DNA sequence: CTGAAAGCGCTTACAG
DNA sequence: CTGAAAGCGCTTACAG
């Protein structure tokens, strides 16, 4: 054990610094710090004290270079500003545990070139896996090239059925909504939804229609009311209607203005139902 | 140059693989790939072709171990779900450039313990710097311990004036709002704002009051209307008022329901004004 | 129980 | 122009 602390000058302390201060070899210091049991208790204590003294934090890069795992994951979103990436990111973070696995967040801004850049960077950082989050439930083209790590597509499934995708059961969601209204005693039920160009809108409509049919009912107006994906379309404030839509105001937008709890976006046709695998 | 491609079996291709395939040493392969000019053009071409063939992506970890820089930054937020972290994250990402610097996103969920865990993890991953994003403009305690990399506090400044903080000029924001209304010809101006426990509310009120005083006017009601940080407080729908607030409805919440553009949160007292350093 | 040695994938002086 | 060698910070067999 040297006489003075020898705090390293201008760089982060290394295992060698710790070992030197504790008067052992780096091999032993490594074992002590990693909780291997082939170390005498007194030795371990000395090493740990030295590490503490130097505020030693093991270099995860060096460790990863050996182990093959980096403990990092890339989360690639196409639409960070949107409503869906953040909850998914938070769920992933929770699952990974604070500090166990760290996530690289990349926003491709809906641009394929940008996405490719990010993938390249993430792979050279040797992430252990990739999570690709889309902003709607329409299938998207899989990542180009051979990706040497596991990839999970979330929200927007991969167009390749061989890939692993976690997406929303929108057909089931449409069913759930109708079943709920039926359970409330309603019989005259309309379906107000988003643009028919989205799989989400079509799928929910399909589920809703099926549930109504099962109940021996028909949809009010005979078909879903497709419209734009915003609260205005579902709200009561509409004053002029196009000829293809009925003169009738289905929902109150009151939920979007509820008092108290912090203010949250609210979609009128079920996008907020819990995610489940298909 | 070997006769068959020798694609490595079950692992990512390394510089050694590339060098072998190109028939040069790793040193030369390294120089060729990194664009050093001490390499014969023909040799460089051969190396690049080999790299291409193997889909070689240099191991950023190994590179970082040498260079001292990792090209990564930690972004530590306390409130990912809130309104402010995401725009800041996107700005940072833009500034870093896709794939040049990657950002680790960590959400401390407002918990100091969790924050400490994340800091520890980020430091062991040897980030080149840290961005700490708060959810309001009240000063926050600086990160505990000695942080060996540059730290920038954003939105919520550090309580230590020696630290670098980028925050919002709320006093100036309050002034701007009043100046705008004055320019529109208004003379009876009230200030409806958030809870007085927040520096943001107090600062904006201060700026607004000062601008009114400068114009020889007084604030309608004689003082700011402090209330909860939500649209309801600023909106027209209020039916009952506490005795401390006037029977008067200041703002229309219509902006939060505007048609067309995708739906955005809207704060009634200026939080959305552009950020500037103090 | 402890330590010398090899090696993870790369870069950088330093000889040839 | 090219390559052998050392080294970044760590871990892991393998001897002692």
TrEMBL record, chains A, B:
Domain HTH lacI-type, first and last residues per copy: 13-67
SUPFAM superfamilies given in the database record: lambda repressor-like DNA-binding domains, Periplasmic binding protein-like I
A Pfam entry, by short name: LacI
Keywords of this entry: DNA-binding, Transcription, Transcription regulation
InterPro entries per the UniProt record, alphabetical: HTH_LacI, Lambda_DNA-bd_dom_sf, Peripla_BP_I, SBP_2_dom
SMART domains: HTH_LACI
GO molecular function annotation: DNA-binding transcription factor activity; transcription cis-regulatory region binding
Keyword DNA-binding part of the UniProt annotation: yes
Keyword Acetylation listed: no
Protein name (record): HTH lacI-type domain-containing protein
Species for this entry: Phytohabitans flavus
